[in-house]
From TrEMBL:
Domain of life: Bacteria
Pfam families reported for this sequence: TetR_C_33
Keywords, sorted A to Z: DNA-binding, Transcription, Transcription regulation
InterPro entries named among the record's database cross-references: Homeodomain-like_sf, HTH_TetR, MT1864/Rv1816-like_C, Tet_transcr_reg_TetR-rel_C_sf
Domain HTH tetR-type: start-end pairs: 10-70
Keyword Repressor: no
UniProt-recorded name of the protein: TetR/AcrR family transcriptional regulator
UniProt-listed PROSITE patterns: HTH_TETR_2 (PS50977)
DNA-binding region of this protein: 33-52
Length: 193
């Protein structure tokens, strides 16, 4: 008798998503296979294909969960008492980078899956972006539209993608400015433009 027979559909689906996130953390995207995920959960190797219509559907569901996690991480920075709008923006930027470092394989998968997103993934990614948009709103004027928030997100994402927060050797060909100083430069440039 299958030990998971009594499990609800939602419970198995949730366990499969969590197993996928765990495998990503341990083996990067190469380790993300339906068989490995099923084995980790203790279900038939056909179960992930059944619940998600194959690996692409499961990858999309994992990416969707990643954006939910990122949204929660960014939202939590708004609950912290800070003294200024800039502190709130800086806290969100720091949280974005920390999330990407702590979940590097998941973070890459999230943005890889946005190349051809499902409607659910698009909606969740937009909700995540909306949290970032809210911390940028004090620096955005109506005539410039979303220009500042796109630039701020680009700085955060670029900083993350280039791993600019990593220590550099004294002989490195360039000195990386701090994220805080980059955000301040962006605010000044936005005010002048």
């Amino acid at each position: 008798m299958n030990k998971n027979r009594g499990q609800s559909r939602g419970c198995v689906r949730e366990k499969l998503i969590l197993a996928g996130i765990k495998l990503l953390a341990e083996h990067d995207s190469e380790g993300l296979t339906l068989r490995r995920i099923a084995a980790l959960v203790g279900v038939s190797h056909a179960a992930p294909a059944h619940y998600f219509n194959g690996l692409p559907g499961l990858r999309s569901a994992i990416a969707e969960r990643g954006f939910q996690m990122l949204s929660k991480t960014l939202s939590n920075t708004q609950l912290v008492t800070v003294t200024s709008d800039f502190d709130r923006l800086e806290a969100a930027a720091d949280a974005y980078i920390k999330f990407s470092e702590e979940n590097s394989a998941l973070f890459r998968l999230m943005f890889d899956e946005l190349i051809t997103p499902t409607p659910e993934l698009s909606k969740t990614a937009i909700e995540s972006y909306d949290v970032l948009k809210s911390v940028c709103s004090p620096f955005t004027s109506s005539e410039k539209g979303d220009q500042f928030e796109i630039m701020a997100w680009s700085v955060m994402h670029g900083y993350t993608s280039l791993q600019m927060n990593r220590p550099r050797a004294p002989t490195a060909p360039f000195i990386v400015p701090s994220l805080s100083s980059m955000l301040r430069m962006l605010i000044r440039a936005n005010a002048v433009a």
